[in-house]
Amino acid sequence: MAKSRHYKKIEKNAVSALLHGLQSLANGIGRIFVKIFKICDSKLTIMIVPHSQGKVINFRTNVFALAFGIVLVVGIVSSFIYFKKQDSGIREELARSMRENRDLLASFDELRDENNNVLQTAKRFRSSLSQTLSLLGINQSSSVAKASVSDSDLNSLFDTKDSVSGSTKEASDMRQLSSYLESAIQPIEQIGKMLESQETLFADIPNIWPVRGGIGHVSQPFGQTTHPITGNWYIHKGLDISTWRSGDPILATANGQVVTVAYDSGFGNYVIIKHKHGIYTRYCHMASTRVKKGQFVSQRDVIGYIGSTGISTGPHLHYEVHIGSDVVDPAKYVNIKVSK
């Protein structure tokens, strides 16, 4: 029992000491606040003395009001500086956005111009394709019109009213053009198949440039002209092709059989090839020949080389095309140049 009373006494003393300490702390904090309040409530007199003989201005305040005013002014100035910087950043961002917008507008105008150019090219393509299909007898209504969706062909494309504007119109035009080009694939494939099926026929008819690589130029056309040596008027029955040099390979312009390999005082070394459908071709003034009489040759085979034999003013090929007993203008049969 004695020990229990002893512990209770110690506990009571500890509680009393703790309460006394807390009371002392509270009193100390209270005195500090009182001192701070007294300091803040200290009266100040601010005097404004002008350099002139004007009246002295003075007003009274306290430390708290002065400190609050200083904090308020500093806050206002800081806010002004912050928002000023923000405003400068916004202005710079706005200027950058305006520059980007101008660049985008310029790019859009360029794209619109290119779009117009594509549409004009497509218009010419439509006209050329229509003419080609008509010449080949291909039914355009079944190959193009049916393959196109309603009002998606170029007729509707170029007759479109200004019902839409801006990028919407350009996008609509491009969709219609894409649809038409897709529908044009079928007739073009038909043309390709037709040409492929006629490849043998084309190979039997003279239709290529007679000098390998498509080089050379026409130095004397077919028809009435002045003889370069005698100066007399005469009918030039062939096409003179010059490369300004000797030795360039001469090609057979169609499949056929060599019927003549000879030399003539006027034509020099020359070769005559017989083709199907009563067509003959003659190649003159050769430096040398590479074929023999009776030999069968294919289109684009080398039959000799450009020279200046016979009556000639320089290295060139005199090329003739005969249909039966008629001599025709070879220019009509050399519209296709080979690049091999």
What can you tell me about this protein's structure?
It comes from Treponema ruminis. Keywords: Hydrolase, Membrane, Transmembrane, Transmembrane helix. With about 350 residues, the protein is an alpha+beta fold. Among the domains are: about 130-200, no CATH class; about 210-335, Glucose Permease (Domain IIA), CATH 2.70.70. Helix content is about 45%, strand content about 20%. It has 6 helices and 14 strands. The chain has helices at about 1-40, 65-135, 140-145, 155-160, 165-195, 200-205; strands at about 45-50, 55-60, 215-220, 225, 235, 240, 250, 255-265, 270-275, 280-290, 295, 300-305, 315-325, 325-330. The strands form 3 sheets. Strands 3, 6, 7, 8, 9, 10, 11, 12, 13 and 14 form a 10-stranded antiparallel β-sheet that branches. It has a two-stranded antiparallel sheet with strand order 1-2. Strand 8 (about 255-265) and strand 9 (about 270-275) form a beta hairpin. Helix 2 packs parallel to helix 5. The longest helix is centred in the N-terminal third of the chain and has 74 residues, at about 65-135. The protein is rod-shaped. The N and C termini lie far apart (about 130 Å). Mean pLDDT is about 80; it is low at about 145-155 and about 160-165.
